[in-house]
């Protein structure tokens, strides 16, 4: 049924597409001698390169996981393509016009993935054209106010989605796309309207330079979606945990310089590149995560001596510091390469370029410091180092940080550095660090998570009566963490009395402490903004750290937080409490003999009835809120 691609053409594609160039677009390859190249395998997780490419033979092979094949196999595997799709993609790349065997009927319909990519490419062209239309004045103004002229808008492919809501759908239908394809691409909604309406758009490309999605900025006051930024929904093409805006522009330089600069938004990426920071990328609609880190590591490769730098630009306030601490909780291998570039004025790269010029953006990146030093300085700054007991407390707070570094080769250096900062005996500091490290490994030995990639628990104090900070990724505590986040970020959306929440609804002592601090802060009616008040009401430093991270972590919600979201969480958390109480009571009932102690039994039974009614009520409240 399917038309076949002419065999000669397949051979021509295989010959003409240089395997080192094709793979080099995804993996940083370095000379390994003997005519071979080496890099970090894109198919499994590794720290030392075992992925080998031999251009003279046109093959790749990974000694770690056993993946291997020719350039076509590579394309199929890396981008999940059919054989024909891989050939078509490579043919485009090397400029070969494919012929299809005639006897097998008409040209086969390309795979869905290719169709979605084609739809995105045409959508990006359409949106870019719309930016010069009369409808898009507000969009052009937005760009101009941020120092972007027409030429830079074109360079970054910035576009405008017409307000009518049908323009793109009509355009693409006219080009032969079916509604099902447009919905699958995330370009059109189920109801037939364009996904993006009246917004400024940035095309998001994969590392092969194909448009796979868009980021969209609100520019009209009457936009019915309140969120400032929205993105293409998750599709076969667009996975937000794996895309980085600007990667298509930065990819080559990231490999060449072994450096990547992470900024926050689309305009920051533009400003950075225009200022000469050509390794800048941004995550799209989600926090920078482990998948992003792995993607960059592959592009940078691993040299023996120099491992590459990933530089995060944070502003210098509490939120930025908390964000740094959050990065700290991620993949350990990544940390040694992680740097922080802090702008003391708090300006993001876009505003920095606008107010102080392009050199200021380059200087920001040049001022980077290792994340470890940044975090260590933050911890130390909370203590009075002029006093002996202050230095000792600071040492006890900082030692677990240094002790948590898994790369033991680095521990010694950081311990010496810490000794220098504290003005203490290096040997004393080293011993404290070792103590903290062995304590940490005892703590985690019994509870390795599924992927063996646990976040280091940051124990800021050796005293046992202080609550240890919970792992942010603990699924069992997800509702608690989200509710605590809402207490910090959206207190005004709770009904009086915190929607019926009590401290007992929080099973983790640290989250319970956040709730207690919120109650206290509310009762004190003090001055200052809410987050500072709640932090001030906290009893321990590490609860303040937790509050800061809760203040900056994104809520899992598209757009503005609404009160129904709060209701769903507060009711959901109370529901968990009631369910715990029910199971306890049931177990006690089972152990009670109704004949021997009828009064006790009946009392417990009526308690159970009350709890069951409450369970039903909370269940419908938490579910109903999300309808
Ligand atoms: Zn491999």
Describe, in plain words, how this protein is organized in 3D.
- Mean pLDDT is 83; it is low at 104-108 and 444-465.
- The chain starts with 6 loop residues before the first helix and ends with a helix.
- The chain folds into 5 domains: 7-104, DNA Primase, Chain A (Alpha-Beta Complex), CATH 3.90.580.10; 112-231, DNA primase, catalytic core, N-terminal domain (DNA primase DNAg catalytic core, N-terminal domain), CATH 3.90.980; 244-377, 3-Layer(aba) Sandwich (Dna Topoisomerase Vi A Subunit, Chain: A, domain 2), CATH 3.40.1360.10; 382-442, no CATH class; 475-624, DNAb Helicase, Chain A (Orthogonal Bundle), CATH 1.10.860.
- With 627 residues, the protein is of the alpha+beta class.
- The chain has a 6-stranded mixed sheet with strand order 10-12-11-13-14-15, sandwiched between helices. A 5-stranded antiparallel sheet has the order 1-2-3-4-5.
- The longest helix is centred in the last third of the chain and has 29 residues, at 563-591.
- The structure holds zinc ion.
- Zinc ion is lined by residues 41, 43-44, 51, 62, 64-65, 67.
Question: In summary, what is this structure?
Answer:
The chain has 627 residues and is α+β, with helices and mostly antiparallel strands. The protein is built from 26 helices and 15 strands.
């Amino acid at each position: 049924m399917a038309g076949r691609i002419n065999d000669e053409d397949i051979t021509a594609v295989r010959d003409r597409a240089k395997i080192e160039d094709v793979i080099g677009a995804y993996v940083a390859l370095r000379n390994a001698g003997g005519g071979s190249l080496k890099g970090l395998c894109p198919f499994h997780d590794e720290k030392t390169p075992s992925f080998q490419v031999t251009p003279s033979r046109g093959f790749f092979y990974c000694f770690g996981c056993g993946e291997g094949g020719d350039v076509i196999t590579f394309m199929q595997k890396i981008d999940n393509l059919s054989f024909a799709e891989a050939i078509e993609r490579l043919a485009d790349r090397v400029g070969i016009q494919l012929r299809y065997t005639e006897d097998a009927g008409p040209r086969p319909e390309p795979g869905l993935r290719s169709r979605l990519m084609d739809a995105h490419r045409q959508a990006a062209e359409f949106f870019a054209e719309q930016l010069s239309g009369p409808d898009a004045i507000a969009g052009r103004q937005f760009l101009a106010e941020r120092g972007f002229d027409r030429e830079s808008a074109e360079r970054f492919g910035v576009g405008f989605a017409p307000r009518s809501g049908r323009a793109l759908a009509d355009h693409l239908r006219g080009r032969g796309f079916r509604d099902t394809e447009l919905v699958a691409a995330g370009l059109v909604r189920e109801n037939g309207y364009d996904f993006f309406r009246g917004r400024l758009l940035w095309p998001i490309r994969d590392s092969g330079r194909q448009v796979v999605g868009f980021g969209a900025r609100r520019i009209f006051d009457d936009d019915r979606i309140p969120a400032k930024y929205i993105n293409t929904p998750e599709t076969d093409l667009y996975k937000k945990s794996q895309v980085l805006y600007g990667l298509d522009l930065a990819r080559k330089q990231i490999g060449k310089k072994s450096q990547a600069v992470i900024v926050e938004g689309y305009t920051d990426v533009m400003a950075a590149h225009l200022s000469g920071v050509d390794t800048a990328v941004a995550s799209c609609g989600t926090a920078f995560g482990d998948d992003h880190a792995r993607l960059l590591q592959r592009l940078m490769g691993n040299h023996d001596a120099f491992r590459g730098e990933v530089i995060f630009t944070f502003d210098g306030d509490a939120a930025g510091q908390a964000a740094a601490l959050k990065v700290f909780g991620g993949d350990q291998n990544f940390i040694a390469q992680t740097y922080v570039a802090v702008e003391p004025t708090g300006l993001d790269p876009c505003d920095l370029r606008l107010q102080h010029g392009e050199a200021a953006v380059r200087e920001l990146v040049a001022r980077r410091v290792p994340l470890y030093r940044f975090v260590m300085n933050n911890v130390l700054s909370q203590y009075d180092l002029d006093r002996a007991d202050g230095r000792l407390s600071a040492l006890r707070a900082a030692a677990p940080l240094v002790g948590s570094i898994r790369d033991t080769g680095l521990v010694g250096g950081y311990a010496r550095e810490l000794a220098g900062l504290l003005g203490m005996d290096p040997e004393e500091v080293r011993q404290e660090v070792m103590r903290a490290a062995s304590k940490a490994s005892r703590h985690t030995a019994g509870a390795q998570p599924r992927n063996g990639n646990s976040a280091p628990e940051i124990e800021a104090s050796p005293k046992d009566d202080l609550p240890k900070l919970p792992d942010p990724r603990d699924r069992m505590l997800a509702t608690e963490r989200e509710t605590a986040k809402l207490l910090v970020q959206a207190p005004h959306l709770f009904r009086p009395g915190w929607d019926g929440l009590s401290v007992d609804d929080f099973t983790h002592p640290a989250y319970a402490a956040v709730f207690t601090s919120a109650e206290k802060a509310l009762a004190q009616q003090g001055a200052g903004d809410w987050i500072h008040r709640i932090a001030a009401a906290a009893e321990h430093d590490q609860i303040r750290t937790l509050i800061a991270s809760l203040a900056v972590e994104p809520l899992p919600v598209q757009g503005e937080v609404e009160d129904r979201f709060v209701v769903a969480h507060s009711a959901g958390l109370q529901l968990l409490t009631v369910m715990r109480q029910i199971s306890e009571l049931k177990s006690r009932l089972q152990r009670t003999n109704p004949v021997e102690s009828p009064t006790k039994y009946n009392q417990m039974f009526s308690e159970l009835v009350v709890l069951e009614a409450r369970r039903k009520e909370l269940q419908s409240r938490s579910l109903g809120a999300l309808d």
